[in-house]
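Exercise 7b. Backbone tokens:
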């Protein structure tokens, strides 16, 4: 009986430590900066405006089909979109492919991407702190403020925990779009 009680306490302590680590990686809500707005077209020519997602948590992913690490993360983001869409998450991809839709459209079909993707450029990416490195993913809270930015391959489980925290901390509010 003592052993099972000790194991329970140890597991509880580990879960608290993990939660504290996640919160430490996220910017405190009162210190977050508003994400720059943009309007770009998706593969069907429809306008996609970042600020129109206010009221939702946005995982904004700067990526390219030429980026091997990006190819690892995209299926994870497809999974996150399916899993957390009802909780208020929207994944939004910004491809930085120079040849635009020529490379991106076949990739989206091949990977069965279930979230909006637009074609951006490095000037836009630099407004978000992206400077000649891919992938870069940002987690934007429901108020349009940047909760976290990660360059390079994300830790899938850690990134998912951060998504869960931001979705919970800023749950749906009335009078939101």
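Sequence design result:
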């Amino acid at each position: 009986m003592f052993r099972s009680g000790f194991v329970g306490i140890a597991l509880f302590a580990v879960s608290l430590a993990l939660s504290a680590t996640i919160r430490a990686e996220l910017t405190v809500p009162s210190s977050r900066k508003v994400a720059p707005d943009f309007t770009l077209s998706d593969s069907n020519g429809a306008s996609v405006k970042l600020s129109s997602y206010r009221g939702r948590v946005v995982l904004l992913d700067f990526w390219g089909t030429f980026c091997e690490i990006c190819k690892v993360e995209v299926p994870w983001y497809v999974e996150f979109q399916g899993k957390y869409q009802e909780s208020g998450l929207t994944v939004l991809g910004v491809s930085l492919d120079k040849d635009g839709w020529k490379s991106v459209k076949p990739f989206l079909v091949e990977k069965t991407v279930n979230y909006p993707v637009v074609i951006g450029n490095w000037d836009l990416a630099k407004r978000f702190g992206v400077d000649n490195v891919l992938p870069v993913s940002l987690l934007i809270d429901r108020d349009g403020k940047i909760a976290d930015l990660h360059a390079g391959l994300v830790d899938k489980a850690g990134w998912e925990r951060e998504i869960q925290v931001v979705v919970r901390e800023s749950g749906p509010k009335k009078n939101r779009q």
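Instructor comment: The first strand starts at residue 39 and ends at 41. The helical segments are 2-25, 68-84, 101-110, 122-127, 156-169.
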